[in-house]
């Protein structure tokens, strides 16, 4: 039989908050925990990726292009939708990866007003190298929860994101 759950730093913090209803208390403690977990994941991923000389934002752009499948190309507009940053942000990120030789920009031959962003062979190799490390780090960090608990939490967080953002098909 397992002993009582160990307390975390949020438990200590929440002891200092006494003027909330039970529902508000639950929401506030969950919010604190989500932010702390997200911060920890990001910090550890940044540390692991720094060995490869790559930032999370760079990996995000490489990942979007890699997920597009051969020929690993998306329009600047599609990158904008995928990455949820401003058009200036996409332009700046693409330019940074272009300087590293990981992507290239071409005018769309079917619509000369559009820019297509493609992974180069070097960029594709870099993405493949780094994604294994990223996955290993995520798996290690989340191993504090059993796989079944991870699946339940994943479903609950999906419902919350749909509540915030709407569905992917909206």
TrEMBL record:
SUPFAM superfamilies: Winged helix' DNA-binding domain
One MF term in the entry's GO annotations: DNA-binding transcription factor activity
InterPro entries membership: HTH_MarR-typ, MarR/SlyA-like, WH-like_DNA-bd_sf, WH_DNA-bd_sf
GO BP terms: response to stress
Domain HTH marR-type: 27-162
Protein name as catalogued: MarR family transcriptional regulator
Organism: Amycolatopsis acidiphila
């Amino acid at each position: 039989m397992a002993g009582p759950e160990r307390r975390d730093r949020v438990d200590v913090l929440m002891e200092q908050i006494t003027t909330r209803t039970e529902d508000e208390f639950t929401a506030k403690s969950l919010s604190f925990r989500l932010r702390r977990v997200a911060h920890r994941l990001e910090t550890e991923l940044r540390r692991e990726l720094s060995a490869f000389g790559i930032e999370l934002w760079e990996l995000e752009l490489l990942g979007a292009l890699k997920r597009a499948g051969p020929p690993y190309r998306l329009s600047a507009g599609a990158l904008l939708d995928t990455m949820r940053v401003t058009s200036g942000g996409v332009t700046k990120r693409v330019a940074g990866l272009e300087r590293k030789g990981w992507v290239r920009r071409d005018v769309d031959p079917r619509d000369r007003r559009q820019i297509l962003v493609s992974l180069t062979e070097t960029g594709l190799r870099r993405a493949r190298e780094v994604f294994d490390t990223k996955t290993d780090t995520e798996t290690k960090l989340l191993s504090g929860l059993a796989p079944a608990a991870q699946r339940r939490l994943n479903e609950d967080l999906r419902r919350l994101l749909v509540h915030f953002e709407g569905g992917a098909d909206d």
